[in-house]
Structures are given as C-alpha cells and as structure tokens.
Write a structure and sequence with these properties.
The chain has helices spanning about 15-30, 45, 55-70, 85-100, 105, 110-120, 125-140, 155-170, 210-220, 235-250, 250-260, 265-295, 295-325; strands at about 5-10, 35-45, 80, 145, 180. It is mostly helical. It folds into two domains: about 5-185 and about 295-325, Rossmann fold (3-Layer(aba) Sandwich); about 210-290, no CATH class. It has a three-stranded parallel beta sheet. Strands 4-5 form a two-stranded parallel sheet. The longest helix is centred in the last third of the chain and has 29 residues, at about 295-325. It is globular, with a radius of gyration of 21 Å. The two termini are about 25 Å apart. The structure holds adenosine monophosphate.
Length: about 325
C-alpha cells in the first residue's frame, strides 16, 4: 500500500506564518516525495468546535483552499478537499473511534484544557471530541505521516492510541501516525509570549500581508535595550531572533546574538531586514493568489474533485470498520 499523508488547517481566517512554516511547508515537502500519496484538508468541522460565524464559514474554507494553492499545493499531486464535503464519513468514523476512548483521557489533554480557559462558556462535546475527529481524519485515509506543528503532538498521541486499540480489538490495520517535523514546528508570537496564533490579535503575520503591513506588525513587537551579557532565551527578543533564523538562517541569527553581547542590536534595522526577508518569501505566494482570485471556476473544480477523490478512500475504510465492529 502506498504511504499516505493527511494534514489540515481550520477555516478560522487567513493563514499566518505559523501555519505556513509549521504545516504547509511540511505538506509541500511530502507532496514532492513520490513515496507518498498526499491528502490536504480544510478542517471546517473543526472550526465549529469553538465559537464561529456561520455566515462566513463557507467563504473562510474557500479562502484556505486558495491559500493552500497559492503556497504550491498542487491538485494534480495532492487531494485538496474540504472536510465537511465528506462529513458523513469522517463524523461517522469519529463516532466508532469514540467507543474505544475514555472521557477522562480526553478531558486531561492539555489542548482541551487550554481551550476551556480560552472559551469557558463554550465547553461543548464537539470541543471534547476534537482529537477524535482529528484521529478519524487521519485514520480514515490510513495516513502514516502528518505534517503539523508541535502543538498538535498531544492529538497525534491520541490518534496512535486509537489506532492501536482498533487494531487490537477489531483487527484493523491502521498505521500509527507520526508527525512530520518542519524547522518551523513552533513559530513564536510577535507579542513576546506564546505561539503565533490567529486567535491572538497582534501575534501574527498573514500570508497576504504586504511589506508595509509586515513592518507595522513587527514595529510593535516588544524588545529591550539591545545589549547585555546574555542573549534572552524567552520573550520578545528571543522570538525575533527565532524569526530571523527561520527566514534568514542560523548564521544570521548568530551574528545578531554576537552583536547583542558586543556593540548592541539596533532593533529598527533588525526589524526592517526581517520584514524584507518575510516579504520576499511571501511575494510569489501573493502573486499566485491574485491569479486564483480571478479564476473562481478553477477553485470550484479543485474543491469538487478533491471531495470525490477523498470520498473514494474514506468510504472503503468506513465500510471495513463497520464490518469489523459488527455492523455488517
Ligand atoms: P490551526 O490554525 O490551529 O488549525 O493550525 C493549523 C496548522 O498550523 C497545524 O498544523 C498547527 O500545528 C500549525 N500551526 C498553527 N500555529 C502554529 C505556530 N505558531 N507554529 C507552528 N505551527 C503552527
């Protein structure tokens, strides 16, 4: 059997550098690898696990499709599809998988606890089930590699546990999926604390930001006096240096670290240079994006064909699980 890859991004807004470096770059690397059949999804059902706007859900999903294609996901090589187009199969499998997982296991996941803190009034069953739906997304394609950021590791652990249990109890042949790691597996926030995230205003740079916007966003990133005995390992300066490394390489980071303990860093120069490097990487993506915006029929076709291809594989797995679990 050809090895499969599955990854997805929620339809919660335009993609940011965290999504790009943590997930999309890995998706592109595996798309180039002929050993793998790659399936890339827009996780709009997962979007519904936290408060969302029903008026924009469909258009948001479409935005992510266009971001995917602009970044280089190629429908000739990868199946690009919207999760809700195969909701009947993914949600069905998630239910079957839920029979082998305890409530306590789900409640103790750090990702669940974080979301409970973030949305104390929206602690729903959908939120508790998030990791099971994700396990279903992966296992329904029997995917063995999952290019996602490090924040998703606890969910992958659940997917592996579920795969093991389904294999042991029902004789399934699910692979135990592992994370495909990229250099940008953790892209820090511009605010100096935590990771870059769509839900934290000021923390991110989106793939559609132009140079002026990138400069504006970086301008408010916290810094210090620029000089000291020891280069900070956490906070705003550490995060800026992490971004320098991601966009300009380790050597450039070392030069700045050296500068910090000698002459001192001029943050205006550092930020201008970083903005330029980010903008150069984003320019071709933005150019492609403009072309796609002018060709809605093509985007429709990608979404339609993606759903058909995904469905063919997903249907087989669901039929197999039903049979093995006694549903005939
Ligand atoms: P989400 O927007 O939560 O659906 O995340 C989509 C993908 O982007 C997942 O693979 C995440 O792990 C990844 N991701 C999100 N934020 C970051 C970040 N700050 N650094 C690295 N990867 C990230």
């Amino acid at each position: 059997m050809e090895k499969r890859v599955l990854s997805g991004i929620r339809a919660t807004g335009r993609l940011h550098l965290g999504n790009y470096l943590g997930a999309v770059k890995g998706m592109l690397a595996l798309q180039r690898d002929s050993e793998y059949e790659t399936l890339y999804m827009i996780a709009d059902l997962h979007t519904m696990t936290t408060p969302y706007d029903r008026k924009t859900l469909t258009s948001m999903a479409r935005e992510v499709v266009m971001d995917y294609l602009s970044c280089g996901l190629d429908p000739e090589k990868s199946v690009v599809f919207v999760q809700s187009d195969v909701a009947d199969l993914h949600a069905q499998l998630a239910f079957y998988l839920s029979t082998v997982v305890s409530v306590a296991r789900m409640r103790h996941l750090p990702t669940f606890k974080d979301k409970v803190k973030q949305y104390p009034k929206h602690v729903t069953m959908a939120l508790l089930n998030y990791p099971l739906l994700m396990a279903a997304d992966i296992l329904i394609y029997k995917a063995s590699k999952v290019p996602v950021g490090i924040d998703q590791e606890p969910h992958l652990e659940v997917a592996r546990e579920v795969a093991r249990k389904m294999n042991a109890q029902y004789g399934m042949d699910f692979p135990e999926p592992t994370r495909f790691v990229t250099e940008g597996e953790y892209v820090p926030s511009l605010m100096g604390e935590g990771k870059m995230s769509k839900s934290v205003e000021g923390s991110y740079i989106t793939l559609t930001d132009d140079l002026a916007t990138i400069k504006k966003r970086l301008a408010v990133a916290p810094t210090d006096s620029g000089k000291g005995d020891k280069v900070p390992s956490t906070g705003g300066v550490a995060n800026l240096l992490a971004l320098i490394e991601l966009f300009e390489g380790r050597k450039r980071r070392r030069e700045y670290e050296e500068q910090y303990v000698t002459d001192g860093i001029q943050y205006k120069d550092l930020k201008d240079e970083l903005a330029g490097a980010i903008s150069r990487e984003l320019e071709p993506i933005q150019k492609r994006r403009k072309e796609l915006e002018a060709d809605p029929k093509y985007v429709d076709q990608v979404i339609r064909e993606g759903a058909e291809k995904a469905r063919l594989i997903a249907r087989k797995t669901v039929a197999e699980v039903r049979e093995k679990m006694g549903l005939g």
